[in-house]
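I am writing to request your help with a piece of structural work I have in hand. Here, with my thanks, is the record as I have it:
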Amino acid sequence: MRINLRHPLHLTLSLLIIFLLARLGSPTLAAPSLQMTPFPTPTPGPDGRIVYIVQPGDTLLRISLISGVSVEELRGLNNLVGDNIVVGQPLLLGLGGPSLPSPSPGPSPTPTPLLPTPSPKPGLGNLCVILYNDRNGDSLRQEEEPSILGGAISVNNRSGSVSLTVQTESGLEPHCFTDLPEDTYTVSVAVPEGYNPTTVTNYTLRLLAGDETYIDFGAQPNSETAAESPAPAGGGRSPLLGLLGGLLLVAGIGLAIYAGLLLRR
């Protein structure tokens, strides 16, 4: 079959076929995809406001998803009624602290040498001790109970710098150890022969600066010492007994006179 190209219909068909063949032979071009502008990270300004400038292709939903601020918050912060925004429009995302520059490290300060701290001087205190004659045996010293003659009092501190011993004398006043350094002290007494202690014979205490501490140790004559003690003056007779004897003598004389008078009658 022959095609007559001079015929108008045949010529149109031929041109159509050639056009289709040319289109099939040329490479197909894909449609360009929609490119979104990058989302610049907003930073707080000097006043603390975080502001974002709307970019091409932005929507209120896109800004909400990327910034983490809900659509309702965006509307409230920017007084928006709908979702219409325009390119270049500033949107307030919130409030934050202003961006601060990172400080550059400076020179290390030179440490100040530590000066030795002077040790405080210990203060002084007084310690007064008496070994008294506990006449009533109640282990409590009364003002009239005197010191026992012939005993001994020893004072020693823990550091070993003080070691003192004195003999007790008769009297009513205690023996005072003055200007003792602040420390822990042990005070002990030695009871003379013929006495039995009625209290403890040693005591440990802490003496502080400015203290004046009094310690009483008691002792009582034993039975042998009490028996050997000298009798009171006047031959051992009590004045009260002598007075009673005189009254009885006068009463006896009076009765004798009264009986003589009765016999005469």
About this structure: DSSP finds five helices and ten strands in the chain. Residues 1-5, 231-236 have pLDDT under 50 and may be disordered. Strands lie at 49-53, 90-95, 124-133, 152-157, 163-167, 175-181, 183-190, 195-197, 202-207, 212-221.
